[in-house]
Amino acid sequence: MAKKATPKTKSEIMAALAAAGDISKKQAGLVYETLLTIAYAGAKDPKGIMLPGLGKLIKVKRPARMGRNPATGAQIKIPAKTVAKFRLAKAAKAAVLK
Fold first, then answer.
1. Rounded Cα–Cα distance for residues 65 and 80 (Å)
2. Exposed / middle / buried, residue 46 (Cβ in 10 Å: 0-12, 13-18, 19+)
3. How far apart are CA 68 and CA 54, in angstroms?
4. What are the phi and psi torsion angles at 87 (to 5°)?
5. Cβ atoms of residues 44 and 31 within 8 Å
6. Which pairs from 33-38 meet CB under 8 Å and 24+ separation?
7. What are the DSSP E strand ranges found in the chain?
8. How many CB atoms lie within 10 A of CB 55?
């Protein structure tokens, strides 16, 4: 029994969503873009946004710290910054690590 290939590109994902939902690729693209918009807006919230079964997208402030230049070995100061972080849900970990 041959294993079905998983979609890797955006157009393959749209085709898979369209087939699974029995909708057009254009509608699948709209659903996908709407989900991204919701996730980006939710990530700006202090609590982040939970995508059930997938994980949590949050905004995290990283403090300034000292680092090392790998080429010269000299110490450098890395400034504080805000980054987006994705925490994988337990269900997703279990499915991926099976």
1. 7
2. exposed
3. 35
4. -105, 120
5. no
6. none
7. 49-51, 55-62, 65-68, 75-78, 81-88
8. 19
Q: What are phi and psi of 18, to 5 degrees?
A: -65, -45
DSSP state of 92: H
For domain 49-98, which architecture applies?
A: Irregular (4.10)
Identify the pLDDT of residue 3: 57
Phi-psi region of 22 (alpha: psi -120 to 50; beta: other; left: phi over 0): left
pLDDT at 66: 96
Domain boundary assignment for the chain? 9-43, 49-98
Specify the pLDDT at position 4: 66
> What is the token pair recorded at 48?
């982040």
Chunked mean pLDDT (size 10), the chain, 98 residues: 70 90 92 92 92 93 95 95 94 90
